[in-house]
TrEMBL record:
Keywords: Signal. Residues 1-20 form the signal peptide. This is Ig-like domain-containing protein. It comes from the Bacteria.
Amino acid sequence: MNKIFNYCLIFLFSSVLLPAQYISVDTNYDANQLVKDVFFGGVGSSCISVDNASISGYDFGSGNKSYGYFNKNGSSFEMQEGIILSTGSALQAVGPNNFIQTEKRTDPFAERNWGGDPDLIETLNNNSLNSDNILNATILEFDFVSLKYSEISFEYMFLSEEYRRDNCDYSDAFAFLIKKKNSAEPYQNIATVPGTTTPVSTTTINAAENCPKNVSYFGSFNEEETPTNFNGQTKTLTAKANIEVGQTYHIKLVIADHGDDTGRFDSAVFLKGGSFIGSKDLGQDRLIMDGTALCENTSIILNATTPGATYIWYKDGVAIPGANLANYVVTENGYYEVNIDDSGCQLKGSIRIEFSEIPNVSKKNFVMIITAHQFN
């Protein structure tokens, strides 16, 4: 009996002392590895070709940079792996969330600020947004050609120390800028709140009590025991761009500190590994917040038809058993995705669906008011 009791005590205390699972970050990847091996995942290379990858940011020394490869590392983080672009030390993005990044820096991290980016500044100005104090820019860029599809997409999350329950005014800045290579036309920013041209930031997607904005796309305010060292995050978002088949495009993914010349309160963009592929349009999100949600007890058919292709449908990141046809009938709230294999070329579609309750009007509370009116 004593042995069993002692064993239970050991198990109890070892369970309490086990560390929480956090993401891992590796800053030893170069630009080609991050783009070709991670972002494209080595999938569908015969359908989208990529070249001239480069990355810039800050090298703090001792192998620590403002960018790198991340892996969920057994944690609850939404993405399995991908690329992190940070306004500070990428290694400091690893959980737990127990200090403000850059506020608690010690050498070699303290007071290490670097330059901004003129294209990001121009994007902010074009959207009538403040562009003061843009610094600590980390930039990943490359050229690509789609050989088959007229739309591309990729998935990402925005995480920030500026996500606080009382912050309605401050946000770092980022943009995903795309245009035809060597064109004089301006960049198009595709890092926008879905269905709008509004750039994603902590002030445009937020669940703060005094200034909620686009709450359906907000992920969480993070407690200490979370996979990353950021105060909050969006849900997984999708960036999309319409393109011309056979045309070379240049894409520039940039994030920077904004509004504070000391560069405090870091932010990061997490790019999902293997997600830069052709895109299948499943329609606009159907959300309660913008009045497009479906009524409860109804359904919607999602159509991903691509001749000769095979399909796998997902709900909230989990494969739906038996859902392998071109169409899928949705009857529940969720984030729905479809992976399409088109003779070796990869396509992906995604949509967020919400259902709103029908108001319950009981007979006993129903009052009919009749007024008399005399016609002359």
